[in-house]
């Protein structure tokens, strides 16, 4: 019996291939879209120093709705953070894009009511939506570091793909809910250091949001006990809403952010504190819990906050055609040129 021999010129290639296969690692975990039609992209490239290499291949864990088949209410065990992109038809597209950062106390990500439900809502206004899957505290991450980095990287990544997705690079912002609003507020104020210190792609792309929605927020960057950051002159306009005495703690955090911006004259800052309103998840007298997101909250005015946001968004020019300078951008540029006011 003859022994088959490998050609001497081929053997180094085969040896190299065998060595590569021996050291190959499974790819990081990539989830399926939460909403049909979404395109999921990882925030960071494999091997990024922002990632925990030992856990990026772990699958996310989902809490599914008991009454709506296929609906994901919340997610945990997020180790390869990502964005899920939903674009609107060209005939409707304003070029505006909203990154949605769900709440959950940094313990879970409530993507059902505070992300997925907003995809069709904003679609009707010609607004593209991006669902953020950011990392959480129970999985070993620091929300004020890792979660905020995820929010800032999401802004950079959307801006880097703006042309490809028919998004206006000057109309990209982030809307956060509760714990997600804590990330949005920090992203609005603390974007400059991230741009300078992040070596991950997309290099040279700004992490500054063009607007922020701060919805019944967690602690602001200006909350008592935190190191008060300097506010960039080109800080984004902000829209804030919260219940009042029924959600006192979160209302105070909203007011701290608003007050810090108002003190130096930042333009286009709008806040609604509702007289009747509770925080999502709070127990009610009938044994149920307060709902959030787009729910009407029993018909109280707090249940219509999303239309107040649309009013503000339209007023600032974000619902006009793409590539047209917004009022927000013009006012921000004028504010940068002015001499700073003392708080």
Labels describing this entry:
9 helices, 343 residues, alpha/beta, 8-stranded mixed beta sheet, Rossmann fold, two-stranded antiparallel sheet, 29% helix
Overall description:
By secondary structure, the protein is of the alpha/beta class. Helix content is 29%, strand content 15%. It contains 9 helices and 10 strands. The chain has helices spanning 11-23, 111-116, 118-123, 143-160, 179-189, 191-197, 248-263, 305-315, 327-337, and strands at 39-42, 61-64, 72-76, 82-86, 97-101, 128-133, 172-177, 212-215, 238-243, 270-274. The strands form 2 sheets. An 8-stranded mixed β-sheet has the order 1-4-6-5-7-8-9-10, with helices on both faces. The protein has a two-stranded antiparallel sheet with strand order 2-3.
Shape from CA axes? Answer: globular
Give the percentage of residues in beta strands.
Answer: 5-15%
Strand order of the largest sheet: 1-4-6-5-7-8-9-10
The ordered H/E elements are HEEEEEHHEHEHHEEHEHH
Topology:
Blueprint: H1 11-23, E1 39-42, E2 61-64, E3 72-76, E4 82-86, E5 97-101, H2 111-116, H3 118-123, E6 128-133, H4 143-160, E7 172-177, H5 179-189, H6 191-197, E8 212-215, E9 238-243, H7 248-263, E10 270-274, H8 305-315, H9 327-337
Parallel strand pairs: 5-6, 5-7, 7-8, 8-9, 9-10
Antiparallel strand pairs: 1-4, 2-3, 4-6
Helix pairs in contact: 4-5
């Amino acid at each position: 019996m003859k022994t088959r021999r490998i050609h001497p010129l081929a053997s180094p290639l085969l040896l190299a291939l065998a060595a590569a296969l021996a050291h190959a690692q499974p790819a990081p975990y990539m989830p399926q879209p939460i909403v049909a039609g979404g395109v999921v992209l990882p925030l960071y490239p494999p091997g990024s120093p922002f990632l925990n290499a030992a856990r990026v291949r772990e699958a996310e864990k989902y809490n599914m709705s008991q009454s709506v088949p296929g609906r994901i209410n919340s997610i945990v065990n997020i180790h390869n953070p990502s964005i899920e992109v939903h674009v609107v038809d060209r005939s409707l597209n304003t070029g505006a894009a909203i990154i949605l950062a769900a709440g959950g106390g940094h313990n879970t990500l409530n993507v059902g009511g505070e992300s997925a439900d907003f995809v069709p809502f904003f679609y009707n206004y010609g607004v593209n939506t991006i669902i953020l899957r950011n990392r959480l505290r129970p999985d070993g991450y620091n929300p004020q570091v890792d979660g905020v980095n995820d929010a800032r990287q999401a802004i950079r990544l959307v801006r880097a793909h703006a042309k490809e997705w028919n998004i206006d690079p000057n109309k990209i912002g982030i809307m956060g809910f509760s714990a997600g609003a804590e990330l949005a507020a920090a992203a609005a104020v603390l974007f400059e250091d991230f741009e300078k210190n992040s070596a991950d792609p997309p290099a040279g792309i700004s992490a500054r949001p063009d607007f922020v929605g701060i919805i019944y927020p967690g602690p602001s960057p200006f909350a008592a006990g935190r190191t008060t950051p300097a506010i960039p002159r080109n800080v984004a306009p902000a829209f804030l809403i919260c219940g009042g005495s029924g959600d006192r703690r979160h209302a105070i955090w909203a007011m701290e952010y608003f007050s810090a911006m108002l003190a130096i004259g930042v333009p286009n800052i709008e806040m609604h504190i509702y007289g009747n309103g509770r925080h999502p998840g709070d127990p009610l007298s009938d044994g149920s819990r307060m709902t959030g997101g787009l729910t009407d909250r029993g018909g109280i005015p707090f249940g219509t906050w999303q239309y107040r946001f649309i009013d503000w968004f339209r007023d600032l020019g974000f619902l006009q055609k793409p590539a047209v300078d917004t009022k927000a951008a013009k006012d921000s540029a004028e504010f940068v040129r002015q001499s700073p006011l003392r708080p």
